[in-house]
Design brief:
Blueprint: E1 3-9, H1 15-29, E2 36-42, H2 54-62, E3 84-87, H3 90-99, H4 103-106, E4 109-111, H5 133-162
Parallel strand pairs: 1-2, 1-3, 3-4
Length: about 160
């Protein structure tokens, strides 16, 4: 049974595709790519059908990541097939929990940085869209830091299903 994780930000062209691509790489490195499916979406549909922001692509490529991306809007009906819905900031967290059809679905929504013990109380990944490259690099650092803890949590859940 496949374990499914979906990363969600506002427009699905900056933070969530970055998290998707980085986490997919971590899943592959861990040898879990046959068991874990990773994707992303936006809370809004403004950029549906667009590729990732060129700055996102550039920062990912500069750091050894590859992967295509097409933006899409998160749909409440997806909750039934997802195991984790990872919000990139507290605004997304609230929006996704309001969209959740059941309390059980709402409990699937978590903040990405909650998986980074060094994050402290500031669990939002800032939106780099209106800034320069430095914001995208900072976003990548936050995503990479949280991906370690997220991978450990996913691995534990996947192993619990197999056992």
């Amino acid at each position: 049974m496949t374990y499914r994780v979906c990363f969600v930000c506002t427009g699905n062209i900056c933070r969530s595709p970055m998290a998707e691509i980085v986490f997919r790489a971590r899943v592959t490195e861990a040898g879990l790519d046959e068991l874990v499916e990773v994707d992303s979406a936006g809370t809004g549909g403004w950029h549906e059908g667009d590729g990732a922001d060129p700055r996102t692509v550039a920062v990912l490529e500069d750091n050894g990541y590859a992967g295509g991306h097409t933006a899409r809007q998160f749909q409440p009906s997806w909750f039934s097939r997802l195991d984790l819905v990872i919000a990139l900031d507290s605004g997304h967290l609230g929006a996704l929990r309001r969209l959740a059809p059941t309390e059980q679905d709402a409990r699937k929504v978590r903040l990405l940085r909650s998986y980074d013990p060094a994050a402290g109380d500031d669990l939002d990944v800032p939106d780099p869209y209106y800034g320069g490259t430095a914001g995208f690099e900072e976003c990548l650092e936050m995503v990479e830091a949280a991906s370690t803890g997220l991978l450990a949590a996913v691995r534990k859940d996947v192993e619990g299903r197999v056992a």
